[in-house]
């Protein structure tokens, strides 16, 4: 039986009183408007509102105007169209000296580079296949079209993500509404290409719920070729399989992930190994950057302060190792096997807490995992409010609108970073509470077995004494 949020979620139940109360037994019987179709429609509306917020930048053809910060409509996509050579249809992993002298190497993983290159070809065709050497080419107009082409693809990816999330726990399709209606989905979906990795994360959770470890591994592997963080889902696989001693499931998932990652990277590796390495060297050599606690600490120490990159790398990965050890202990000691989404969320959240940078769109990394790990609107809204505050603060900081008003470090910006992290930690605490006390887990508290415990099987809980 489908669980409806007006009966299951206190916030939704309270809001439903303004429209006649919780869902009745005769409601929702329209043959066409199934829960999944409603969720897809909500996703489309949310995504469309996000595109509307980009209108001020589109009207100026994504030029370097003050609007990109004052109207918070900035996106990397149209800028990189020309800055990375996609407007000239250059393969991102070419070692051609003339190309490399003119354009920087794409600093993202191979999956994103393939997509950016492919959509560049689509843009070129839709622009009338202009002469690449024509000095009169209208690159700003093409960049706007490139943004539109990518936005169409992002919209399809967002819809697919919702569909996958709605199918993770079949009796709870409405949990996916937390993704479909998320303010940060609207605000950040088109800033960069991060949404491409999100669909593979949702797909991996979906596949795991259907006892398909090979498909889970393939989706994690391809997702990691798009963005690094889906790799951390293997930690969730490890915890559940260790707990249940399912060594074959563990081996199949890890092997499939490795093979899929290697196959997805093969075109880049075979055509430009040195260019392929740029993603790894760029991130290893990167210092404290926007949105991170590292940058806040560095700025608080004064204008001449500098935290060495090696120190950041060492402390960050040391923290991450301890955090993962904590998740492992939590998963092994929990009363029942934690759900895949719970473990995946906790691991990715730990990585982001001490990462060198926290771009506004990084919230998308956590969004599907958070919604599936703890589908409670009160806590989702608390977390989203922290992210929205940070979203506004980072653009105003870059635009020089925060005190002291000249683009220098701002206490308001520091506070926004701290509040974002505090909101994230609040949600982490709610997920941990659900792991430690399964009766407080919104998904796992029903009497029927929980399908999202995945191929490692279910555990029967010993009833509490009366």
Write the layout of secondary structure elements.
Layout (H helix, E strand, L loop, with lengths): L4 H4 L1 H7 L18 H19 L1 H5 L7 H4 L6 H7 L13 H6 L7 H17 L12 H28 L10 H4 L2 H6 L6 H15 L3 H14 L6 H12 L2 H25 L1 H4 L1 H7 L8 H8 L8 H25 L6 H14 L9 H11 L3 H23 L11 H26 L30
Helix pairs in contact: 3-9, 6-9, 8-9, 8-13, 9-12, 12-13, 12-21, 13-15, 14-15, 14-19, 14-20, 19-20, 20-21, 20-23, 22-23
Question: What this model shows, in words?
Answer:
- Helix content is 62%, strand content 0%.
- It contains 23 helices and no strands.
- Helix 3 packs antiparallel against helix 9, helix 14 packs across helix 20 and helix 20 packs antiparallel against helix 23.
- The longest helix has 28 residues.
- 45% of the residues are buried.
- The C terminus is likely disordered.
Q: Which characteristics define this entry?
A:
single chain; mainly alpha; 466 residues; 62% helix; disordered C terminus
Uncertain stretches of 5 or more adjacent residues: 446-451, 457-466
Overall average pLDDT:
92
Structural class: mainly alpha
What are the secondary-structure elements, in order, as H or E?
Answer: HHHHHHHHHHHHHHHHHHHHHHH
Question: How many H/I helices?
Answer: 23
State the total count of DSSP E strands: 0
Task: Give a short synopsis of this structure.
With 466 residues, the protein is mainly alpha-helical. It has helices at 5-8, 10-16, 35-53, 55-59, 67-70, 77-83, 97-102, 110-126, 139-166, 177-180, 183-188, 195-209, 213-226, 233-244, 247-271, 273-276, 278-284, 293-300, 309-333, 340-353, 363-373, 377-399, 411-436.
